[in-house]
Write a structure and sequence with these properties.
Elements lengths: L1 H4 L4 H6 L2 H10 L6 E8 L2 E11 L15 E9 L8 H15 L4 E7 L3 H9 L3 E8 L2 E9 L7
Parallel strand pairs: 3-4
Antiparallel strand pairs: 1-2, 2-3, 4-6, 5-6
């Protein structure tokens, strides 16, 4: 599933220089427009996801143009040793909280139609299918989660 979910193969990812990975981590360190969330157990990285804000009026990675700034979850991964422990639920809750704190009313993500486990986890977290788009590898489901209004207190 990695080639579909991450838009690259494991081999392509491994071939990237360490400096590129460091740069990506620095870019997505928690900030106003992006954050990366990690899950660890016994000093082992067992899960991660990144959320970034797609800018209104600017085409995204699938050539969609959002009407408003739209936080989007990407790069979701839970290691085999982290599966079944609620790691994905915790990571998605953190992404939802991050987006809510910044005043966003929706959180989005895309998932390939063949990734049933991910779709189930996203639905459990409150995401629903909003639309779909045909890509080279098949059908991508665009899922959206409605977020509560930010508490002004």
């Amino acid at each position: 599933m990695a080639g579909v979910a991450f838009l690259e193969t494991v081999e392509q990812a491994i071939a990237r220089p360490d400096d590129e990975w460091r740069s990506r981590a620095a870019t997505h360190a928690e900030g106003r427009t992006s954050a990366q969330f990690l899950a660890e157990a016994d000093d082992e990285l067992i899960g991660s996801l990144t959320v970034f804000v797609r800018r209104a009026g600017i085409p995204d990675y699938l050539d969609r143009v959002p009407e408003v700034d739209l936080p989007t979850v990407v790069g979701v991964y839970v290691s085999p040793s982290g599966r079944g422990l609620g790691v994905i639920d915790t990571l998605l809750a953190a992404a939802s909280e991050w987006a809510t704190e910044r005043g966003h009313r929706e959180l989005t993500l895309d998932v390939h139609e063949s990734n049933a486990a991910a779709i189930g986890a996203y639905q459990r977290a409150g995401f629903v299918v909003g639309s779909e788009i045909i890509v080279e590898s098949g059908r991508e489901l665009s899922m959206v989660k409605q977020l509560p209004a930010r508490n002004p207190g």
